[in-house]
Fold this sequence. Notes:
Radius of gyration: 24 Å
Strand order of the largest sheet: 1-2-3
Number of strands: 3
Distance between the termini: 48 Å
Number of domains: 1
Largest sheet: 3 strands, antiparallel
Number of helices: 4
Helix content: 40-55%
Amino acid sequence: MKNLKPLSRAALLLRRAKLSEKLPPLQEVMRGSFLERQVRCGKPTCRCAKGPGHQILYVSVTFPGGRTQQVTVPRHMVRTVRRWTSNYLRWWQAIEEVSAVNRRLLQLRQIPSDELAAEAAPPPSPRSRARGR
């Protein structure tokens, strides 16, 4: 990530806005690692007993608590799955960069006024919500 200190407020806001323009559709995102490996089936007459093993393609995802899920990927879906896992990394990197820009805006005390206004607006009272029904 580049150094954000010398950038002006306008440059920071432009940088933040452009980040989302480069992102792939959220529907095409999947967290996980695409893996390929060779396995031997154990049958003594199988070709894998003497030669290369059977190729297995799968996505592996680790969840909190150490639980891991592995999903086999059919050959005809390999390109799509690779793109989805790559897209996840692009989104993650963009989130990190937006976060860095927002931290710098906070340090400069230059958060856009429309974002501050949304925070400053009082929440609707329970009474006004009841009247609106």
